[in-house]
Every structure is written in structure tokens, then in C-alpha cells.
Amino acid sequence: MEASAKQMMSLQAFPSITEDEFEAACKALEDRSFDKLDDTDWLSVRWSGKDLTIKQRRAIHSLEQKALDEDGEVDGLAEDSCPAEILLSKPLSESLIVDFSITLSPVYRVPVLYFSRQHTSNDSRLSLDQVYDWLIPWTSHTPLRNTGVMGGISMGYHPVSDQPAFFIHPCNTPEALSALRPGANLTPEGYLILWLGLIGSSVGLHIPSELLA
After folding, report:
1. In degrees, to the nearest 5, what angle opens at C-alpha 102 toward C-alphas 138 and 130?
2. Which residues form a coiled coil (predicted)?
């Protein structure tokens, strides 16, 4: 069956996804990203045949920048009730490139998100504290630390590159996806976009609006 036909078919057994459906979804997102990334923080989207890689340029924000909104509140809390370490942290103006990789879990039959800092000779690997401080939105700190519906952050070896990387454990992903109750005609690409909105957003990997237009 041609890839375009697979991309249009509905999923067979949501919230799971088959290998063929996963491949079709990744190829579709790669195609969708072609010539649409110039004004986004996504630098590239590539399907290798085994994993979908997304490079993202990420501004390094302090906890203060992430937590305080325009009204001076932290996730609905008044500024005077915020922890001191949030309010006293200093803004940072640096950026880094994060390598995200999406693979298919052979056990849970759902995508798994791996991520690491783009490695160069001058860069050290991210620590878990840096991951929480720089990459994860404040609203996701508690759910991830407590292994909530999104699953906790673990360190392991990437199944394709065999390099150490952080990943969001997929044990609770099927339940979290089921709670979203998508329509019966969900395509593989629609599934991947839904999954990215749930899991990717928990580590700041938001789909650029240019890709959804």
C-alpha cells in the first residue's frame, strides 16, 4: 500500500499504533514540515526509517521567566505566594539545540519521546536539574516528577543511536491518550499530532502553528 494511502487510513486499535501506522505518521509529519520551518523554533524534521528526529532551538529561560505570566502570576498563584527560588532566579538569554527523537515502544505500542542536548566538543550533557529548569514548563514539573499520567522522566540508551538520552516513560501514555477521546476516524498523522500535543508539550516541544495551517 502506498504511503499516502496509509496516511489517510484510520487507526486500527487506538490508543495503540502499529509499526506501519507509526511509519506513515512520521513520514506525513516530515512531509508537512517541508519548507514550513523558517519562522519556527524547529530546525529540522527527519524520518530515518527507525525514528523521527526533531531539532529544536530552545531559548534558555529562568524559572522566573517560565513561571510568571504577564499578570505577575505563577500558574494561577499570586506572586507573593510563589517559592523564593522562582522569584529570585535571574533571566538567561542563551539558547541551546535540543535533539528530540520519537520511536515506537515495542511493549506499550505507543510512541516514546527521547531528548538530549545536541552534542558538540564544547557542550556537556544536560543534567536532570537542567532539564527541569531549562526545558520543562513549570506546569509539567509536578506531573513528571510524580510519574503522573504522562509518565516520569528517565535516563537510558536510545534504541537507535545507543547514546544516553532522557525519555518520558510510556507506561501511562495509553491511558492519557484514551482520556482525550478523539474521533473514530483518527489518521496516523492525526494520532502523532495528538500525541505530540500531550507528551511533546510536557517538555516544551510544541508543534509550530505554521505546520497546522
Report:
1. 35
2. none
CATH number of the CATH domain containing 21: 3.30.1460.50
- Rounded alpha-carbon distances, angstroms, from residue 29 to 107, 127, 140, 187: 24, 30, 25, 12
In a domain, 82, yes or no: no
Sheet with 111-117: strands ordered across: 42-47, 52-59, 95-104, 111-117, 164-168, 153-157
Q: Is the residue at 70 inside a domain?
A: no
Q: Tally the domains of the chain.
A: 1
Q: What is the pLDDT of residues 129-178, one digit of tens each?
A: 889 888 998 888 888 887 654 558 999 999 999 999 999 999 999 999 99
Residue 61 lies in a domain: no
Extract the runs of DSSP E, i.e. beta strands, from 91-162.
95-104, 111-117, 153-157
Question: Is residue 30 in some structural domain?
Answer: yes
pLDDT tens digit sequence for 33-91: 999 999 999 999 999 999 999 999 998 865 445 454 434 444 444 444 444 343 334 44
List helix spans (H) across 34-156: 63-67, 84-87, 128-130, 138-145
pTM: 0.80
Nearest to 66 by CA among 164, 140, 116: 140
Rg (C-alpha) for the chain, rounded Å, is 18
